[in-house]
Structures are given as structure tokens and as C-alpha cells.
């Protein structure tokens, strides 16, 4: 189970935090590290010293340009986030995250990504809206910003406890059937947005959080691959109607 | 409760770990730090930088010569320890520690000390035998030595969770907003089915469980009233396209 939990660091600027993250991961039995557009070198004296023997994870880390590339194959993407955002998103505690993991990872094809943002500014709203849920580590409201490696340590600790305690139960049939991957979901959202523009319902110039609300609704349902195929079929049929309607418009 | 939990570091040799400990403590709402015979200066550029704004705790830390002096007033002393020692001692998990704290600290005079040993050698047997119990953070047996500040972070996190327990959690913000009623959902499903017929995607004569699958998907998301209104707006826009497309069809 632990080998299918990926830690994703976005735009990290301090090598020491990458090393500290590697040590925290290895201490808890995690090994899959992805670095998205790091703002510093991953391998430095500081990162190797903070890794304290776990620097292999930094050497093996996948470095990619975008969050998409880091989580495309993941069936559950959870973003580490401070509390309230303009658009509330499903928010879970680290303990709730842990309790969900055994079932989330019951399917041997399933992968979970835990996404951590920049030391200074965290995750952008666009990044947060690509997550199924947000996890918030309860902190002192007067001093809430955790060190990056410390935040990874807490979530990795909950992952390990869940692995030590958890037993996959096949009670939940929904999570048993094949869930859509992040990439499949993003293709659907792109198709949905194109279609809403085609039928004149959505104006990208004045989005009014429309796509964000539709993302939140859809991600909450944890769509199965087959359900996504049905929805995309509906979008295609809708686009055909729009083409015929506007196509006829084109004539004088 | 949190103000009566003391973090005790014995023989620390790296200032950065003292600063990291202060940050982890302040993040979790702890403030009482004691340093026993530190092997380094507590206030250095490295410790202040790792404290990242929590260096007040380092300045306020009590520096003493012996464990006795650091925990004399404590009613419960728990030592952070790797597992098996020559002489087995009451061993608790971090979670068990947290669950005991409210009762341990019910008496307003009570104080709890969490004792952490040296980076290289941990706590001596003599120090461990001055503890009521030992707490072990479960780790990867192949890489079990946690960074000192990371170990403090995990136990301080469990302390905070124990303190927060019983309060209404503000996780799961989504479910707070108004859910659609059964009647509203049925109106939506009727509207959805009409629209799917209008665009030629659904044939009631050969339904292929289409509506059942769309119901299951939608109900799983527990739609909010506002989300359902957006979806119905999309259906209406889709129907308008279909009318224009087929309306033109009607002409000879």
C-alpha cells in the first residue's frame, strides 16, 4: 500500500526541505517522490544532509514540469491546504485521510497522490481545484504555517498508521470498480468546458467559478471510468446539436 | 491543556533541531520548552532560521543541567524511545499518549513532560527509567531514526488532536451548504432524461440502464441545490440548441 502513495512537492525553493521530506518519507516507509517545477536544485549538500541517509529518494525522484504529469495516473489526489478558500472544497483531516487509504488502495492499480505547495505561497487555486479533496493539518491559528518537511512527516505518519492498522474492506463497491484517473478526469473537464462554450452557457471571459463548481461536484462523486465515458458521450451528442444549430446560423 | 505539556530535549547537538522543535511546538500550540545540558548553542542563525518566527520559544526555553530539574514538577513523564530495551518498560503509541492527555491534565496543577534524547544516541537507560512510560513512533524498521524536530512534530500533533477532540470539527465544509431535496433531484432527473432524448442520446425504448447509471453517479455526489440549478441551466441551454437544430430539420 505505502508504495502506491506518492508525495508531490510543487515549486519547492529550499533543498533542505526536499531532503527533510525524503527522510520523513523513508522513515514512514514511503518511497515515491515527485518534484513539480522545483525552484531549487534537489541534490545539494543541504538536501543530502537533511535526508540523512534517505537521499536515494531524492536521486530517484521524478522531476516534472506540471502537476498534471505528476499525478496523471493517480485515482485519488489530495492537496495539503490551509483552511478556508473562496470556494469551499471537500476538506478532510489527516486522520480521515489515513482511514480512507486502505480502501482507496485496495485496487492494486490505484495510486494516491499527496500534493504539497510552495514554502511561501502553498498551492494555487488552480492546483487545489485539481484535487479530489484537501487535507488540513490542524495548527495553531496564530502560527499556522508548518515547515514543508514537517507537514509531509505528519501525513506520512498517518499513512503509516493506516497501513499498520488498516484492512481493505470490500464493503464499498464504488471504490471497488475502476475509478477514472486524474488524466481521464482532466480530459473530461476540458471536453465539458468546450461543450459549455459551444452551447453558449459558459463564457471563459466571465467564468463565475462555473468550472470550479462543476469540478467540485464531479470530483466529489469519484467518477468511475465507465461513468465518465457516458458523460463524454452526452457531451459529444450535445456538441453535434450545437454544430447543426450554429452551422445553419452561418448561412445568410 | 497544551500550556501544561513540556517538551524536554536532552543533550541536543544541532541548533537547527532546537529551532525546528520550537517551530513544530508553536505550530501545534505548545510553548513550554526545556533544554537539558545542550551540546550546542540554542540561539544561532541556524536555529533562528529553522524556528521561522517561533524563536521566542527558544529564547524562553529553560536550560537546566539534568532531567530531574526539567521535569521535577511534572505528574507524567513520557520518554520518546526506540522499541525494545534491555528492561521492558510500559510502551505506548503516540495516539495512546494523546488519548491519555485530557485525563492526565484534568487537574489544573498537572504537568506532562515529553522527553527526547540525543540525535546520535537517544535517551540513556537511566533517563528512560525515570519516565512513567515510553512512547514509540512507528517507523520503517530499515530506517527508523527520525529527525529530532520531526519526532517532536509527530507527538505535538497528537497532543493538539487530543486537545481538539470533542470540539466540532470544521472539516467537510461542503456538506455544510444546502443539499438538494429528493423532489428537486427528481425534477432534475426528469429534465435530464428529456434532454438526453432531445439530443438523440437516449432512447426510452432501449434504456440500457442509462438513467440508472446517471442517477447513481449524481446521487453519490450529494448535490447541493445550487449545483443542481447549474446543471439544470446546462440542460436548458442544451435543449435550446437541439430545438434550433431539429427545428431547421423540420423545413423541407
From TrEMBL, chains A, B:
Substrates-to-products reaction catalysed: cytidine(32) in tRNA + S-adenosyl-L-methionine = 2'-O-methylcytidine(32) in tRNA + S-adenosyl-L-homocysteine + H(+); uridine(32) in tRNA + S-adenosyl-L-methionine = 2'-O-methyluridine(32) in tRNA + S-adenosyl-L-homocysteine + H(+)
Keywords: Cytoplasm, Methyltransferase, S-adenosyl-L-methionine, Transferase, tRNA processing
Molecular-function GO terms, alphabetical: RNA binding; tRNA (cytidine(32)/uridine(32)-2'-O)-methyltransferase activity
Protein name: tRNA (cytidine/uridine-2'-O-)-methyltransferase TrmJ
Organism of derivation: Halomonas cerina
GO biological process, one term: tRNA nucleoside ribose methylation
E.C. number: 2.1.1.200
Lineage: superkingdom: Bacteria
Family: Belongs to the class IV-like SAM-binding methyltransferase superfamily. RNA methyltransferase TrmH family.
Amino acid at each position: 500500500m505505502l508504495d502506491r502513495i506518492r508525495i508531490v512537492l510543487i515549486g519547492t525553493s529550499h533543498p533542505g526541505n526536499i531532503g527533510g521530506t525524503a527522510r520523513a518519507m523513508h522513515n514512514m516507509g514511503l518511497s515515491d517522490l515527485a518534484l513539480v517545477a522545483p525552484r531549487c536544485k534537489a541534490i545539494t549538500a543541504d538536501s543530502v544532509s537533511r535526508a540523512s541517509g534517505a537521499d536515494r529518494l531524492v536521486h530517484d525522484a521524478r522531476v516534472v514540469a506540471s502537476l498534471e504529469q505528476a499525478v496523471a495516473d493517480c485515482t485519488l489526489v489530495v492537496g495539503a491546504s490551509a483552511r478556508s478558500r473562496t470556494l469551499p472544497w471537500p476538506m478532510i483531516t489527516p486522520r480521515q485521510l489515513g482511514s480512507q487509504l486502505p480502501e482507496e488502495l485496495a485496487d492494486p492499480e490505484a495510486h494516491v497522490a499527496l500534493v504539497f505547495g510552495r514554502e511561501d505561497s502553498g498551492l494555487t487555486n488552480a492546483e487545489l481545484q485539481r484535487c479530489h479533496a484537501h487535507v488540513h493539518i490542524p495548527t495553531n491559528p496564530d502560527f499556522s504555517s508548518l515547515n514543508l518537511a514537517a507537514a509531509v512527516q505528519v501525513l506520512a505518519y498517518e499513512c503509516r498508521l493506516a497501513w499498520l492498522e488498516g484492512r481493505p474492506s470490500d464493503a464499498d463497491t464504488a471504490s471497488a470498480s475502476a475509478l477514472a484517473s486524474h488524466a481521464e478526469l482532466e480530459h473530461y473537464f476540458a471536453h465539458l468546458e468546450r461543450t459549455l462554450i459551444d452551447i453558449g452557457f459558459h463564457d471563459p471571459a466571465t467564468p463565475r467559478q462555473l468550472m470550479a463548481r462543476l469540478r467540485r461536484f464531479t470530483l466529489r462523486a469519484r467518477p468511475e471510468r465507465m461513468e465518465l465515458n457516458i458523460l463524454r458521450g452526452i457531451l459529444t451528442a450535445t456538441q453535434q446539436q450545437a454544430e447543426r444549430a450554429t452551422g445553419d446560423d452561418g448561412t445568410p
